[in-house]
């Protein structure tokens, strides 16, 4: 989920809706998505969430009430959100942002499946993760 593909839709408008906890993004192809902050947070492209390779992902829980406290541009290709739980290392280029919006149903289903497989509740507090200190988090 990295990079900006040639010819891919680019955002024409980005609006943070704090009360409803969604990021509304209008793209150049006419598509408009309302992406819940929780979805953005649990699928953050950061190493803290995604790990450093396949199978190293950290299942995110307890993010239902997370808020977006800041959204900074990164050049002309991405935005970097800061969430109310302190997470601020995920940079969302336009392609993954479009994917979050266009594939919400599939992403929610995959998340619910991972929760079920792990035997944890969506609202459970995050488990402490120890023994990892790569400096990228």
Give an overview of the whole structure:
- It is built from four helices and six strands.
- It is of the alpha+beta class and 137 residues long.
- The chain has a single domain, classed as NE0471 N-terminal domain-like (2-Layer Sandwich), CATH 3.30.2020.
- The strands form two sheets. A three-stranded antiparallel β-sheet has the order 1-2-3. Strands 4-5-6 form a three-stranded antiparallel β-sheet.
- It starts with 10 loop residues before the first strand and ends in a 19-residue tail after the last helix.
- 19% of the residues are buried.
- The C terminus is likely disordered.
Quick take:
With 137 residues, this protein is α+β, with helices and mostly antiparallel strands. It contains four helices and six strands; from the N terminus they run βββααβββαα. β5 (78-83) and β6 (92-93) form a beta hairpin.
Furnish the topology, listing elements before pairings:
Layout: E1 11-17, E2 22-27, E3 32-36, H1 37-42, H2 47-50, E4 68-74, E5 78-83, E6 92-93, H3 94-102, H4 104-118
Antiparallel strand pairs: 1-2, 2-3, 4-5, 5-6
The CATH topology annotation reads as NE0471 N-terminal domain-like
The N- and C-terminal alpha carbons lie at a distance of 18 Å
Question: In which order are the strands of the major sheet placed?
Answer: 1-2-3
Which CATH architecture is right? 2-Layer Sandwich
The string of secondary-structure elements, in order, is EEEHHEEEHH
Rg is 15 Å
| Mean of residue pLDDT values | 89
Characterize the overall form: globular
CATH class: Alpha Beta
Structural class: alpha+beta
Main sheet record: 3 strands, antiparallel
Low-confidence regions = 130-137
> In DSSP terms, counting alpha (H) and pi (I) runs of 4 or more, how many helices?
4
* Number of structural domains: 1
Number of strands: 6
Percent in helix: 10-25%
